[in-house]
Fold:
Amino acid sequence: MRLTIERAALLKALTHVQSVVERRNTIPILSNVLIGAAGEKLRFTATDLDIEISEEVDAEIERGGSISAPAHNLYEFVRKLPDKAPVRLELNPDDPRLFISAARTRLHLPVLPADDFPLMPADGFDTRFRIHPTDLARLIDKTRFAISTEETRYYLNGIYFHTVANGSATILRGVATDGHRLALADTVAPDGAQGMPGVIVPRKTIAELRRLLDDAADEVEVAVSAQKIRFVLNDAVLTSKLIDGSFPEYARVIPKQNSKKLKLDNKAFAEAVDRVATVSAERSRSVRLAIESDKVTLTVNNPDAGLATEDVSAEYGDAPMEIGFNAKYLLDVAGQIEGESALFELADSGSPTLVRDESDEHALYVLMPLRV
Amino acid sequence: MVMERGRGDVILCRDCAEWTDQTSRCARCGGAQLIAHAELAALTIAHIDCDAFYASIEKRDDPALAARPVIVGGGTRGVVSTACYVARAYGVKSAMASFKAKQLCPSAVFVKPNMAKYAEEGRIVRAMMQELTPLVEPVSIDEAFLDLSGTEALHAAAPAQSLAKLQARIARERGLTVSVGLSFNKFLAKTASDLDKPRGFSVIGRAEALNFLAPRPVASLPGVGPAGAAALEKRGWRTIGDLRAAGEHELMRALGDWGRRLYRLSIAEDGRRVDPGGERKSISAETTFFTDIAALGELEDALWPLCDKVAGRARAAELAGRTLTLKLRDARFRTITRRQQFTEPTLLAQRIFEAARALLAAEVRPGLAFRLIGVGLADFTPAADADKGDLLDSRTPKIAAAERAVAKARGRFGRSALVSARTLKPRRDD
Structure:
């Protein structure tokens, strides 16, 4: 293998793939990135056995071949090279190491045979569709904050993507919940997505995908099977195992009869929550909302740290009530609301509360109240 | 214990709590209860244990009972909580089945326990202890460790004098007797308080500690129950002296960390401090099997009552824990602990059991037998906020309601009034 590649192109590809590589590995080859050179293309592939990211870049290839080398060291080295420097990669029969040189810097890296590198089989995808990166990014952004980290309910450790019939149209929906809050976002299902099996995409895959989406220009190809999902974004391919479990019947926790409507200026509300939460206890982070016709009084009373209150203007037409929420959960939801107003739909101080974005009817949030 | 008097002994009169140079009667008050010990003025760690606490309170409050054998416990189907010393003379013991106690001592008067009254009495006695030193570590309602170091100037009296005064004060003001053990660490103080009950005042000093311990059975060490003693005896270690002779290296090789602790105790070393705590840091329960167990099902059967016990104590303390610890000790005495965090704190036996069972299942392997299992709950928050369930979990509040009802029934009818079927499964231990 002998080739030359632009440092910028090399760095971009390595940046995309290396983050999937775990820092500590008991299986040595999992610390490596697979490098394959053929024709005009150089392909980098990294895996943690659950997620595989692969990216192709243009290179001047004198002699093809493939090998694997330590991902993090290669990435760090390339990152520290001067910009614009052409980088040479060479694998010589008389040296059992990968030789990398740029300007006056030379690096020899230990290698492991390419044949030992575990690749995910690319078969069995029954559902295929194309989606615009901004639509996919929106489904992720609106829901990922509610993904659970709790190991016992592992089936909550991802976003549940599935299709829902809505009259004659089909909706592609993302849902995430940790049991304390739920976030849901819809988009029109692209052609081909109809009949897709419901899939739970793990948190780490979501994080990797979201990074790749920032650099994705054209449409993203999505392929789904019962066990795996694959995203093709320009030159990058992300393949991931799915969470093997069934997502709960989330529809029954979305309140449908909450009659008390509260309208708040989202920005003013979020800032007020943030201020009063300064004195909240580390764990409960509980904020009490006393709701009246024209205002909501936010109170945090923490005997150890102090008492904070703030009034926020509101529109509310029902009997005054009090309800408590986790401040962080309120801020997470407020952070997703793009419109000027947040619309709360309440039942009573012990029942789940629905929050909507005035400007986006295709997303909703459910918050479980706290005892105050 | 009242040692044989030797040269260099200091002599304390228990009646007037003053030093004396007489050997038969106190020169000051004429009292005959003298304690003589060379280190009497220097020892500071005490263990105080109320004598037949529940029964003594009942006798005090009903003079008609004074001379009769009194058993505090739960009726004919329950067990003996406390037997007075008269009943003990018939062979009645704590935790004995009530029907058996009745057979042994047909004339016994059975009294239903009045826990509220005992708890109040325990608080009063504890408050008296706390007047002597802030370092009072309650072990249970009727016993505590006291560290009296540095109190000499405050009370213008040596710890032994303060303790004698306290003993007399409890008898005078509360009509109850306590036994005092005085030594230089918790293990020996506790050992001492047991030597001369009731109304005892026993002293174990540094000079005689090793000789005193040597002939005692290994089962008299803290943390060595019947199963532990059997395991030690199988290796030829019957007495504390045998353990000391085996040496630290040998004990550690055979028993791991437990061996090290046993060796330390055998040479009269106990590094545990008297910890008034105040805030409870953990609640745990463990059990040692007579025969090592490898089967997951049998281990689970042993695990459940421990979870139930821990949950009961958490409920009593109104605490919910966020961290669960599973402790296992294998046949080679290697101890492993596994921890898990609950996302929401709990005090439910069911949730503790489910989490502990998952940790247990991960440790069970063919050919690996365990001799001990334990479960602990820590990292507490107030119980009122716990086990509310969430959007997706409607099961936890139901379990919580069920366990509340069980706890209520047990509060009225005793611990054994309501147990899960699992508890009643015949086990190899039985």
Notes: The radius of gyration of chain A is 25 Å. The mean pLDDT of chain A is 93. Chain A has six helices and 25 strands. The longest strand of chain A covers residues 306-316.
